[in-house]
Amino acid sequence: MPPSLQGRSRGLWLPAGVILAALSLWQxxxxxxxxxxxxxxDPLSVSRGLLQEVRSGRLFDDLVASxxxxxxxxxxxxxxxxPLGLWLGMHARLRLAVLPLVNFFRxxxxxxxIPFAILWFGxxxxxxxxxxxMASFFPIVLATTxxxxxxxxxxxxxxxxxxxxxxxxxxQVTLPASAPQIITxxxxxxxxxxxxxxxxxxxxGRDGLGFAIWDARNGLRMDLLVVDMIVxxxxxxxxxxxxxxxxxxxxxxxxxxx
Amino acid sequence: xxxxAPTSLPQDPTAPVLRLTGVRHAFGATEVLHDISLTVAPGSxxxxxxxxxxxxxxxxxxxxxxxxxxxxTVEHRGTSRMVYQHDGLFPWLTVEENIAFGLRQIPDPSTxxxxxxxxxxxxxxxxxxxxxxxxxxGGMRQRVELARALAGETELLLMDEPFSSLDDxxxxxxxxxxxxxxxxxxxxxxxxxxxxxxxVELADxxxxxxxxPARVQYELAVDLERPRSPTxxxxxxxxxxxxxxxxxxxxxx
Lengths: 258, 253
Prior knowledge:
The complex is a heterodimer of chains A (258) and B (253). By secondary structure, chain A is mainly α. Chain A is 81% helix and 0% strand. In chain A, helix 3 (58-90) runs antiparallel to helix 8 and helix 8 (166-204) packs antiparallel against helix 10 (222-246). The longest helix of chain A is centred in the C-terminal third of the chain and has 39 residues, at 166-204. In chain B, the strands form 2 sheets. A 6-stranded mixed beta sheet of chain B has the order 5-6-7-3-8-9, with helices on both faces. Chain B has a 3-stranded antiparallel beta sheet with strand order 2-1-4, covered by helices on one side. Chain B contains 7 helices and 9 strands. Chain B has 253 residues and is of the alpha/beta class.
């Protein structure tokens, strides 16, 4: 077997083994009745719950609702946060003036905005998108600013020497030079956004995976609650995997190999 | 045409490429360069050596036009390009794309393509076109920098200790390659280095700068065809003379 193939299959089998071990631990704990069955659903009842949720189509609807909100809020934060970060990164005085405020909002838990989000936007997609935006925008601005401010000055000297215009310098030097760091931040922030959407939907939603958790709790359907937890965890992994692919782009590899 | 040309000299090919007249430079109260005058003829290779911290790099930045001098004038003509100590290449571009950066001023795409192939051959990196800088050794990276700087219509090549971050053997190889490259692609060169042997092996004129504030302390002409062997009597004798000028000669100054 070629080494790469061996490595790949090992990369699959080892985690699969750990997951199997976790499942058996779960099964053992529920069989031992450490907690009453109503408070600690066993794997079998959760599987039945999963089947039920898939058949009714509700799981899919919730999943789409949550993904839509995360994507909208996150993309909005990227579209506004990256340009603002580039701008702040290039102007030291502006940075000095604005960064404390950005830092303040970054340190503020986005969940603190929930009451206002409901007051301003009611219940549904908009408050959740707003909260995800608030969670992602400030870290993206900060990280982009830092990435741009740390671009080695020799690159700008070279750009000047070879006659690049300001616009060309921005697109051909500043942006690619800070891209690896920005993408790392996007990965971290997307994870954060996915955590926030659950909380937002629990309070300000009528659907979505977060609301499904809340609904399961109210109906004392702990089996469905676990179904939602599993789906949320899996999707979070998928999102990270997708963003991880960005770091495989050849012209970005340099940023991850030092 | 470099956008940085401080003051242009006449475009006559026999006129000096670079002329410094009474250049002084200070950072605040610290005087770094004290009254430096220097004329560099086309096609000549000038090396500036001096103790570390004497203002060699400052001088090079004045030559490139990045910074204006506190007093005096810096004039040059044509395009000047700098080769940096290390990491001057754009890491997000391949070898090919980095060198092509030096060809931006050439309007005709087929000329650009031909020049690119020629430069790759000159630095003996044909086959590495699609590699990224982080996939190359330090010596290979400096060769790519050299190719980028020489690819266009460069008339003045400025080198800021270009081989100082390399190991001794690679450094010796690169000196030799630089000499061979300049034979095929002639260019006026100003090299800043703290390596006396390097200066003597490569330059027609070795200019020794004093401690800060730097003045021209001593100048030595080396008339010997390149590439030169480090053990050639002329080279050995020149190294000895420069060492003596720096107060490091055999048996003391």
